[in-house]
Amino acid sequence: MKQPKQFMESTFKILWTNRALSDLKNIVTYLEENWTVNEIQKFTRLLDLQLNRLIIHPFLFPASNKYKKIRKSVLTRQISIYYRVINNEIQIITLFDNRQNPKKLNKI
Predict the structure, then answer these.
(1) How far, in whole angstroms, is CA 8 from its chain's centroid?
(2) Is 5 part of a structural domain of the chain?
(3) What global pTM score does this model have?
(4) Which residue in 85, 83, 94 sits closest to 26, CA to CA?
(5) What are 49-79's pLDDT values in tens digits?
(6) Residue 104 pLDDT
(7) Which of 14, 27, 51, 54 has the most neighbouring CB atoms within 10 Å?
(8) Closest-CA residue to 69 (of 53, 101, 93)
């Protein structure tokens, strides 16, 4: 009888910058004002799934073209997660609205 596949335990942990927390708050506020509870739940499930991917495979997503130590994970068409890996920490830098002017990323 086959044994169930064991998941690798990750030693990485997620840390949020103040900017990323502010971005998350703004996204949730927007969703609360303009969308349904179902849409908010869908977004949070998607975000949780992506964060779990990062914890297991922190180097899965490509490095930014401009900042080689910063990686970009596309969460939705509208939102990308910019993060960096330092030792065993994954620092979420920003949840960036892809519809904004990319020059706003110069401040990361």
Answers:
(1) 21
(2) no
(3) 0.84
(4) 94
(5) 999 999 999 999 999 877 789 999 999 999 9
(6) 73
(7) 54
(8) 93
Residue with tokens 């739940």: 41
User: Distance of alpha carbon 36 from its chain centroid, rounded?
Assistant: 22
Task: Give the domain extent around 46.
Answer: 13-98
Q: Which structure tokens are listed for 7?
A: 């998941």
- The single-letter code of the amino acid at 51 is L
Supply the CATH number for residue 65's domain: 3.30.2310.20
Tell me, yes or no, whether 106 lies in a domain: no
Rounded distance, CA 6 to CA 81, Å? Answer: 28
Enter the tokens of residue 70: 């910063």
Residue corresponding to tokens 């030693």: 11
- DSSP assigned state of 104: G
Helix (H, G, I), strand (E, B) or coil at 74: strand
Is the pLDDT at 17 greater than 70, yes or no? yes
- The full 3-state SS of 32-47, as one line of letters, equals HHHCCHHHHHHHHHHH
Quickly list DSSP for 79-95.
Answer: EEEEEEEETTEEEEEEE
